[in-house]
Specification:
CATH superfamily of the largest domain: P-loop containing nucleotide triphosphate hydrolases
Radius of gyration: 28 Å
Keywords: ATP-binding, Nucleotide-binding, Transport
InterPro entries: AAA+_ATPase, ABC_transporter-like_ATP-bd, ABC_transpr_TagH-like, Bact_Polysacc_Export_ATP-bd, P-loop_NTPase
CATH architecture of the largest domain: 3-Layer(aba) Sandwich
Strand order of the largest sheet: 5-6-7-3-8-9
Distance between the termini: 45 Å
Order of helices and strands: EHEEHEEHHHEHEHEEHEEEEEEEEEE
Helix content: 10-25%
Family: Belongs to the ABC transporter superfamily.
Number of strands: 19
Strand content: 25-35%
Shape: globular
CATH topology of the largest domain: Rossmann fold
Protein name: Polysaccharide ABC transporter ATP-binding protein
GO molecular function: ATP binding
Number of domains: 2
Structural class: alpha/beta
């Protein structure tokens, strides 16, 4: 695979609060350093791109020392929180703005969809803007004409194609803009958050088209979104940006896990004083919730070991019935397993099931068997469910833990196991 995008020490600095150098003194200082062949002194200062901190400098590094390579046909997700530098990076790749330091190398034509209205002239009709965008990409008129009907059909705005785009709604704008960017023959397609403007049906349609562009046509796709499910579906690789820094570049699932769990509670145990209740119960409260593996409290579990979830709680109402329950969520926040303490959902009989409890402390243990969960990151929500029409104790996503591959497990299989569960099942082959 040939490299189509290469970034070498890309940095972008902005001045806060005003546009331009600011003072004649700054301009003279810059000129003086330049004629002496020295580095611009204002590039040496600047705070990190952390929007939550006030900072001491008028300069900020939106991006700092970014290095990566992207091959032809790769579909790469760029993820990070608001203000991490994702849009700035895409603008540099699209040559909308230039980096302060470093170099960017691209091979082939780039079609960008960075924000609503990118590349469209508001006074021109949809038809005229299609031909304008194609010309900007270096396509001849007959090439654009050949794609025209396909673009209009995909966008779903045929009735308004000869209307100036300034009269389009934001959703119509995005529909036509994406259709143009995806269908005109560029080697690199860059898409920012704009798809969030479209309706659910169109978003699904766009994701399908981007998948076709990357996998079927061999073109490169860079996709920025806060929708981790969409990134996971479309992209095979991902980059995680944080405060203007490239934290890691890896497979999509690993980067999403890193992003989701960054800053989350990563401890293997939370006690009563650490638990923030989202909903309280008048009959009981949590004392502790923990993850145990191989007899030790741990939030890192080998795939061939049981995951033991211990819930300790205090009953405050005499004679109340309670059903401890857990929800297991994947890194995208989707509940993949819900279970509670009952004979119908457990392989062993619990003597306290469906019986009135006296006041006091209890411990309920739930065991997820070894070789059941796939290698990934997971979160736990816990519940104490009383009889109907009574409030339950609930705490959501109170713990995070990871299931890790073991070295010996990779000998008979290469590649990434898909799905969230991967149990050892009974298999038998007979010659018949």
């Amino acid at each position: 695979m040939s490299i189509v995008i290469k970034a070498e020490n890309i940095s972008k600095q902005y001045r806060l609060g005003s546009v331009g150098s600011g003072t004649v003194k700054d301009d003279l200082k810059r000129w003086y350093y330049n004629v002496r062949g020295k580095e611009d002194p204002f590039l040496k200062i600047g705070d990190s791109n952390d929007r939550s901190l006030k900072g001491e400098s008028d300069y900020v590094w939106s991006l700092k020392n970014i290095n990566f390579e992207i091959n032809q046909g790769d579909s790469v997700g760029i993820i990070g929180r608001n203000g991490a530098g994702k849009s700035t990076l895409l603008k540099i790749l699209s040559q909308v703005t230039q980096p302060t330091t470093g170099k960017i190398y691209t091979k082939g034509r780039i079609a960008s969809l960075l924000e609503v209205g990118t590349g469209f002239h508001p006074e021109m009709t949809g038809r005229e803007n299609i031909f304008l965008n194609g010309a900007i990409l270096g396509m001849r008129k007959h090439e654009i004409t050949r794609k025209f009907d396909e673009i209009v059909d995909f966008s779903g705005v045929e009735r308004y194609i000869d209307t100036p785009v300034k009269r389009y709604s934001s959703g119509m704008y995005v529909r036509l803009a994406f259709a143009v960017a995806a269908h005109l023959e560029s080697e690199i397609l860059i898409v920012d958050e704009v798809l969030a403007v479209g309706d659910a049906e169109f978003q699904k349609k766009c994701l399908g088209k981007m998948g076709d562009v990357s996998k079927g046509e061999g073109r490169t796709v860079l996709f920025v979104s806060h929708n981790m499910a969409a990134v996971s579906t479309l992209c095979s690789k991902a980059m995680y940006l944080k405060n203007g820094l490239l934290i890691k570049q890896d497979t999509c699932n690993k980067i999403i896990d890193l992003y989701i769990n960054d800053g989350n509670n990563s401890g293997a145990e939370v006690l009563k004083d650490q638990i923030v209740y989202q909903q309280k119960c008048p009959h009981a409260y949590f004392d502790a919730i923990r993850i145990v593996s191989d007899g030790e409290i741990s939030n890192s579990v080998r795939i061939d070991k049981d995951v033991v979830i211990e819930i300790e709680y205090t009953v405050t109402t005499e004679g109340i019935q309670l059903w401890p329950s857990i929800h297991l969520l994947d890194s995208l926040g989707t509940c993949i397993l819900a279970t509670f303490n009952s004979p119908s959902s457990s392989i062993n009989f619990d003597e306290y099931y469906n019986k009135p409890l006296s006041k006091g402390k209890y411990r309920t243990v739930c065991k997820i068997p070894a070789n059941f969960l796939n290698e990934s990151s997971y979160k736990i929500s816990a519940f104490l469910v009383p009889p109907v029409n009574s409030e339950m104790a609930m705490v959501q996503e109170v713990l995070s833990f990871g299931v890790n591959e073991t070295g010996e497990m990779t000998k008979d299989y290469t590649g990434v196991w898909i799905g969230q569960i991967r149990p050892k099942l009974y298999w038998e082959t007979q010659k018949i």
